[in-house]
Specification:
Elements (H helix, E strand, L loop, with lengths): L5 H11 L4 H5 L5 E4 L15 E13 L20 E8 L2 E7 L3 H7 L5 E6 L1 E4 L2 E5 L2 E3 L12 E4 L4 H5 L4 H15 L9 H6 L5 H9 L4 H33 L10 H7 L8 H15 L5 E6 L5 H14 L3 E5 L3 H15 L6 E4 L5 H13 L4 E4 L13 E7 L6 H8 L25 E6 L5 H7 L4 E5 L10 E6 L3 H13 L3 E5 L8 H17 L7 E4 L5 H12 L5 E4 L12 E6 L7 H8 L10 E6 L5 H12 L3 H12 L25 H17 L9 H8 L13
Parallel strand pairs: 4-7, 10-15, 10-16, 11-13, 11-14, 12-13, 14-15, 17-22, 18-20, 18-21, 19-20, 21-22
Antiparallel strand pairs: 1-9, 2-3, 2-5, 3-4, 5-8, 6-7
Helix pairs in contact: 7-8, 8-22, 9-11, 10-11, 19-21
Bound molecules: adenosine-5'-diphosphate and magnesium ion (MG).
Adenosine-5'-diphosphate binds next to α11.
Length: about 725
């Protein structure tokens, strides 16, 4: 293609992943400049992007503390310059353009008297509007083409710009690509889907996404391309799900027997409606004859463990074993202690296997699993070792899913019972073995927004426990700036005097970051000063401690011997201390909302009124503070996750990075296009219902598109 030499081609490939002209056309503008409208400076008011055509009146260089850097001498001290301010005017008024970067270059360009078109987001400052880092263009000759249309702004990088691929060059390339390809562009959606959903054809969409004829055409093009993207992603996921639930045999567990009933009938409390519903959903799966792949979502304390144990007992009643895998030793031990209590009336034999099990313990456990005398095994990654062989593994429960990698999950898959008579045809077996995969239940306490769940777990069935056991009091959440920390210490003292215990949590985003650890240690010392021995006892836990030191401290707190536990987020993974009713979170502005919500779930488990104190850097900006305020308004994890996603985008939410799913889509947004996502999923469902294996000729285009493998995430279908 003209204008793209080998150098530029290489740059496009490395920076944007563009290898073909077709790829190029699929790089869409993320914004449009309305060149048909030039604002008068006097008319600027709101927050939208605007374009003004104005003459440079004066330019000034500023150094630190807004001192003026002299610019009339022979030599300008560029190192002292922090900011360039340019005053511009049109016939209606004046405004300021501000540059913090590219100062020298812009200084040379902004010669008083010259006229430019400035594009940017105006903001009000001291009663006047200014623009920071506007895009600057020479005004186009009156009546030229661009002057009357929407012009796309493309994603760019420093390297691209330096390599000569500026916004304008990108526009030119797109225009050339369209001229070259448009007649040959192949539709990706069958006619019937276009008609039924009032979608415009692909060539119309591509032309208008790059060079919109008008707003209306742009809207149509955008809708079509977003729909296409969401539709194929859902079609891919649903097809996986369909293959699994309809095509493959699974272990059939139709019986409800003595083990299940003896626990069910001896529960000291009534299950919540949500728990009952979820158990029914799980049982339907387990008796269906197809492998279960179910995600169980529920806030901390909603009673997921209870559900998991009942599911495990169903497996036992049908002659199988179950394993429950937790991400950490501490959590595995806690699960084990709880589960043993639950299992007392059932007589089912339960064991625990972790990295710290002794060789002798291991031998006993390995033998018990192999001969089937152990019914339920709780453990950590140690369960995945090759030496662990089950007699008949029927159910694998994985707690806190996002901490386990895909590879580890597929190891569990291989521990199912041997298929009778060899590999079942097209069987749901591990690729490297002749074993039938156990049913899989993944539990997560990280609430995920619905649209994200539909993408991350689109091929799993999802159960939600959306109801807390009765009698739980919502945690009261308070915001305190860190220059008023004395009030927090005062409050802690009062609570401790009432016999309560307090968590103090510091952020440790990267476990290796020395600075974070310093903060923690400084904080610990400060707390020791305010809470001296022997009146107070303070324990400390962090990731750099040896395992036994950590356990010792954790235990001291869990058993009520320490009043305060100072820690990094290691407690996030689920220790249960009912007497701890206060959670103080330091530098809370550095945590994600979902993570704060998780932490907050650690208190409020007992009968006492409980509190979460979010201490934030008093210099924290307005936006970040508003984020924190949401925590005070609601205790609903899903609402918090939705908001978190809207504010930060889906890519930054906890647990999404590791998923490998394309959540940062080319044009659609999981945060904003929920309605369209639902439509696209419904259409994909309808298509598969009518034609499960996509054999119908009118679906040939769909098969072709799916084959391109864009949505084919390696190994993802084997989440279990
Ligand atoms: P999760 O795993 O979802 O965080 P758990 O299963 O650990 O929640 O339950 C938290 C606590 O609530 C446990 O002490 C458990 O015994 C108790 N619990 C579970 N279900 C109920 C219920 N329906 N009514 C009252 N208490 C319950
Ligand atoms: Mg739990």
């Amino acid at each position: 293609m003209s204008g793209v030499g080998p150098k530029r081609a290489a740059l496009l490939k490395s920076e944007l992943g563009i290898a073909t002209i077709g790829d190029l056309l699929r790089i869409y503008p993320f914004r449009y400049i309305d060149r048909s409208r030039i604002y008068r400076i006097a008319d600027i008011g709101g927050d939208a992007f605007v374009q003004v055509k104005a003459r440079v009146v004066s330019r000034t260089l500023y150094g630190p503390q807004s001192s003026v850097v002299p610019a009339d001498g022979p030599k300008i001290l560029w190192n002292a310059v922090k900011r360039l301010s340019v005053i511009v005017e049109d016939s209606s008024g004046q405004m300021e353009m501000v540059f913090f970067k590219g100062i020298r270059w812009n200084w040379e360009k902004m010669v008083p008297g010259s006229v430019f078109v400035f594009f940017g987001k105006p903001s009000e400052f001291n009663g006047r509007f200014n623009m920071v880092h506007p895009e600057v263009d020479a005004p186009l000759p009156e009546g030229s083409v661009l002057q009357n249309g929407l012009t796309g702004v493309y994603p760019s990088t420093e390297k691209l710009r330096n390599g000569g691929i500026t916004g304008k060059v990108m526009c030119k390339m797109q225009s050339a690509a369209l001229a070259l390809c448009l007649p040959e562009i192949q539709e990706t959606l069958p006619d019937y889907i276009l008609t039924e959903n009032a979608l415009c054809p692909l060539n119309y969409a591509l032309r208008n996404i790059h060079f919109p004829a008008d707003q209306y055409a742009l809207q149509k093009a955008t809708r079509r391309l977003k729909f296409e993207e969401l539709f194929f992603l859902q079609l891919f996921l649903l097809k996986q799900k369909y293959i699994r639930s309809h095509g493959n045999p699974g272990l059939s567990m139709p019986k409800v027997g003595a083990a299940f009933n003896s626990l069910y009938n001896s529960l000291p409390f009534e299950l919540t409606g949500a728990q009952k519903r979820v158990i029914r959903e799980i049982f339907e799966d387990m008796k269906s004859g197809h492998q279960m792949n179910r995600l169980l979502q529920g806030d901390v304390g909603s009673g997921k463990t209870m559900v998991a144990v009942l599911a495990a007992l169903l497996a036992i009643d049908n002659g199988y074993q179950a394993c429950i895998m937790a991400p950490t030793e501490v959590l595995a031990r806690q699960h084990y202690a709880n589960i043993c209590k639950y299992l007392e009336p059932t007589g089912v034999n339960c064991a625990i296997l972790t990295g710290s099990s002794t060789a002798k313990e291991r031998r006993g456990i390995h033998a018990g699993l192999e001969d089937g005398s152990i019914g339920i095994i709780v453990g950590t990654h140690a369960l995945l070792e090759d030496k662990v062989v089950f007699h008949r593994l029927g159910l694998a429960v994985i707690d806190e899913q996002h901490r386990f990698g895909v590879d580890q999950r597929s190891k569990l898959w291989a521990k199912g019972p041997a298929a009778e008579g060899g590999t079942p045809l097209g069987g749901n077996t591990h690729p490297d073995s002749d074993r039938i995969a156990p049913h899989v239940l993944v539990m997560t306490a990280t609430p995920i927004p619905r649209t994200l769940a539909m993408t991350l777990y689109g091929d799993l069935d999802v159960s939600v426990i959306d109801e807390l056991p009765p009698g739980r009091k919502p945690v009261k959440t308070i915001l305190v700036p860190d220059n008023r920390k004395n009030t927090v210490y005062g409050f802690m003292k009062k609570q401790i005097a009432l016999g309560r215990q307090v968590f103090v949590v510091y952020p440790l985003i990267f476990e290796s970051e020395k600075m974070d650890l310093n903060n923690l240690e400084l904080g610990y010392e400060e707390i020791l000063k305010y809470f001296p021995m022997p009146d107070y006892k303070v324990a400390i836990v962090h990731g750099q401690q040896a395992g036994d030191v950590k356990d010792f401290n954790m235990k001291a707190f869990a058993e009520g011997r320490a009043d305060i536990l100072v820690s990094t987020t290691v407690i996030e993974v689920g220790v249960d201390v009912p007497n701890a009713s206060v959670m103080v979170i330091e530098s809370s502005q550095r945590f994600g909302l979902s993570q704060l919500h998780q932490l907050r779930g650690r208190v409020g488990r007992g009968a006492d009124e409980s509190f979460c104190v979010l201490v934030y850097d008093f210099k924290t900006g307005k936006e970040a503070r508003e984020r924190l305020e949401l925590m005070c308004r609601t205790n609903d994890g899903f609402e918090i996750a939705e908001e978190d996603m809207k504010m930060r985008g889906p890519g930054d939410l906890e647990g999404t990075q590791q998923s490998g799913m394309p959540i940062n889509l080319a044009i659609a947004s999981l945060a904003r296009d929920g309605v369209l996502l639902n439509e696209a999923r419904a259409v994909a469902e309808k298509v598969l219902e009518a034609d499960p294996s996509l054999e119908d000729r009118r679906n040939a285009l769909l098969v072709k598109e799916l084959r391109k493998g864009k949505y084919d995430i390696k190994d993802y279908s084997k989440i279990s």
